[in-house]
Write a structure and sequence with these properties.
By secondary structure, the chain is mostly helical. The protein is built from 9 helices and no strands. α2 (55-82) runs antiparallel to α3 (90-105), α5 packs antiparallel against α6 (155-165) and α5 (117-148) crosses α9 (206-236).
Length: 239
């Protein structure tokens, strides 16, 4: 039971990530026409009118990912308070907010009843998840680097900042690419297969960097789970 309780939070997060990718894969396989992830956004898979046979798979994957992440962060917050650490770390609170907004953003519009509620909640979820992942990665990485480079005082913070900041690189590229396209090719419609037909490079596609961002965030989430399990194991080990 102790081992189950130790690994349950991370298992919830990892299963949520797997559900995310499985749901999107199933949704893409049921897309009524060709789906090229390099030039087609994730949201294309979630609309009933665009993907009538697969949108439920996409929504299910997103919802399970959000619920798994919310379970993960809530259990970690509870453990933090139980161990007398006071308020949970800022990064953990940001992740909790992000997953909670992600769940609310997936509620049907007729139940949400908030003007532009989905857009606001989705944007809030994205920003909160970015902040949470970066802050927790920095904290976990600094802790690990301090154990390995005890002689260098500043090096752990520098290495940790580089590792945490790398998570934001695809986010910045996702914003820079469409900004350049809107300036260079203002007549080009929003990202889609037309871009491929016009010979627009993949690295200028917002959809490409959106998918890369999801892959990077998934990897960082798995890395955080691993780092937290190692920390728990060390804390539980007899001195």
């Amino acid at each position: 039971m102790k081992m189950l309780a130790r690994y349950a939070p991370c298992a919830a997060a990892v299963l949520g990530v797997l559900a995310f990718w499985a749901g999107l894969w199933m949704a893409a396989a049921r897309y009524p026409s060709e789906y090229d992830w390099r030039f087609m956004t994730i949201s294309s898979l979630t609309y009933p009118d665009r993907n009538p046979a697969g949108f439920r798979w996409a929504w299910s994957g997103l919802m399970l990912c959000a619920l798994g992440g919310l379970c993960w962060t809530r259990i970690l917050s509870r453990d933090s308070r139980r161990l007398g650490a006071g308020r949970p770390p800022t990064g953990l609170s940001s992740l909790t907010l992000g997953y909670a907004c992600m769940v609310c953003a997936l509620v049907p519009e007729r139940l949400l009843r908030i003007p532009k509620g989905h857009e606001i909640l989705a944007l809030t979820a994205f920003i909160a998840l970015c902040i949470g992942i970066v802050r927790l990665t920095f904290q976990a990485a600094e802790r690990q680097f301090r154990l390995r480079t005890r002689r260098l005082r500043r090096a752990p913070r520098v290495y940790a900042a580089l590792l945490a900041g790398a998570a934001l690189l695809p986010v910045m590229l996702a914003g820079a690419a469409p900004a350049y396209i809107s300036h260079a090719l203002p007549a080009l419609p929003w990202v889609g297969l037309e871009w491929r037909a016009r010979g627009v490079p993949v690295y200028l596609s917002f959809a490409f960097w959106e998918w890369i961002t999801c892959a990077v965030f998934s990897a960082y989430t798995a890395g955080l789970c691993l780092a937290m399990m190692v920390s728990k194991r060390r804390a539980a080990a007899p001195s």
